[in-house]
Design goal:
Blueprint: E1 2-6, E2 11-17, E3 23-30, H1 33-52, H2 58-66, H3 69-77, H4 89-97, H5 105-122, H6 133-144, H7 150-169, H8 197-206, H9 209-219, H10 227-231, E4 237-238, E5 243-247, E6 259-263, H11 269-278, H12 289-301, H13 312-321, H14 330-342, H15 348-355, H16 359-366, H17 371-382, H18 403-412, H19 415-442, H20 450-460, E7 465-466, E8 473-480, E9 486-490, H21 496-511
Antiparallel strand pairs: 1-2, 2-3, 4-5, 5-6, 7-8, 8-9
Helix pairs in contact: 4-5, 5-7, 8-9, 19-21
Amino acid sequence: MATLSTRPNGTRSIQFHDTDRKRRTLYLGECNKKAAESIRQHVEALINARITGTPVERTTAVWLATIGDELKDKLARVGLIDTPKRAVLGEFLKGYVLNRKDVKSATLEVWQQPCRNLVEFFGGDKPITGITAGDAEQFAQWLRTQELANATIAKRLAFARTFFHTARKHKLISENPFSEVKIPSADVKARQRFISLDAFQRLINVAQPAWQTIIALSRLGGLRCPSEVLSLEWRHIDWERERITVPSPKTDRYEGKESREMPLYPELRPFLEAAFELAEPGEVYVVGGKTGDTFRKAAMKTPGKWMGANLRTTMLKIIHRAGLEPWPKLFHNLRSSRETELLKGNPLHAVAAWMGHDVQVCLKHYAQVTDEHFQAATSAASCSSISTRNGAGNPTIPSETDPLQSAAKCAANTPENAMQNAMQQETVSVGRSQQESSQMQQGSALIADPCECLLECAHGGNRRVRDSNPRNSYEFSGFQDRRNRPLCQPSGSMPHQYTAGLRFWHRQCRAI
C-alpha cells in the first residue's frame, strides 16, 4: 500500500498509489524512522478510507486534528485530505461575524468595537490558525492599557471568545485561543443607583406630558427604554383585567419571547389614564404625538435601530431642571429601581417574568440593596429578645423561630399601641386567672406553691416534689416543649384537670 524510503541525504518520503492508480510521493523531510513509520500507517488508513468510501478510523482522525498546518498541506497536495480552509483574521471577522443574519443590527453594531480591537492588535492579514493562547493573553493585557472600564474589557474579551468559538465550529481552528483567558468581573453594583419615588416626583413636576409618560413607564412600569416604551400601543393595555402586554423588540427573535404580560400597577395607571385623555383620536402609541414620532423615526434611520433614538440628551436636561444629580445608566436604573421595589412583596420568579428576563439576570443586574433594607433589618433586631437576659446575665435568643411572626410583633410594638396592648393584656390576664382558678378548685388542691414545684423539677432532674396532697408527687419528665422548656408530669395516676392545671402554672411560671 505505502512504502517508506530514505534518501542518501537523510530525508524520508512515503510512496503510494492513489484511487486512480497513479503513483504519489509524500515528502516528509528529515525525521526519525519511528515518526516516519507512524505517518506511513496513517497514510495507509487514509488511502483505505478513500478506496472504500468509509469514515476515517478514529485514531487517524485524532491524529489529523493534532498535526500542524505544514503536514496538512502536504497531505492535501497528494490528495489524501481535502484542502484545509485558510482564513485570515480580517476576512473571518467580516464573513463569519459581522454578516450574520441571526442577530440584531444593534448587536452587530456593538460587535464592531471588539472586531476593530482584534484587527488593530493582530493585523487583518494574520491567519487565525496562528493566534495562540499566549497571543490571546497579550491581547487581554493590551486592552487593559487602553483606559477602558473593567466592564468594557470583560465584554470585549467575551465577544472575542465567542468569535473564535465560531471559527472552531467551522473547523477553521482546532482550539479556541481565548478559552483560558481570564475575563475580569464587571462591578455591576458600582453603577447601580436606586431612584426614589421622591426623585421620580421631582422629575414628573418639571417634565412635559409626553416625557411624564416615558418616565412613568420606565420607573413605575419597569419597561426597557427606549425599545419597549416607544413600542407600547394602546391596544396592549387591558384596562378591565389590569394587564399590559409589553412588546419586546430585544427578545423577539426567541420563540415565545416576542412579548410578555405584566400587571397594570396601581401607581402606573393614573399616568396612563392621563396620557389617554391627552391622546389625539386614532393615536396608536402610548408615547405618541410629535415627541414619540420624532424618536421612533430617528431610531429607524440608524443601523443600531433603537440606539439612535437618543432620549438621553433630553432626559439629562429634565434631571438638571429637577435639581438632581445625573446617575449612571439613566433608564436602566429606573427599571432596576422598580424591580427592587417589586421584589419586596412578590415571588422572585413572578417579578423576573414581569420584567422579561430570568432569575439569574434579576439578581445580578437589577436587584439592589437600599437603605430601607438596612433600616428594616436594624429595626427588627431592636425588637428581638437580645435585650432580654437569662439567669446568668447573658443575652437570650428570640423564642419565635418564625421571622414573619417576629416581624409582625415588631411592627405592633409602637408607642401608639403600647397603652392599648397593656390594657388588653391586663383584661385577658384577669379573665384567664378567674377561669383557671375555678378549674383548680374542681380537682382539689394541686400544689402548694406551683412556682417552687416547677423550679425544683427543672433544676433537680428526676427529683420528686410533693404538693399539699401527700398522695401526689411530680417529677421532671425528661421531655421539653417546643420552646425547649422542661415539662413536669405526675408520677402516679391523677385526674386530667390536675395535669392541665400544672401545665398552666408551668406556662405562668416560665413567663414570670
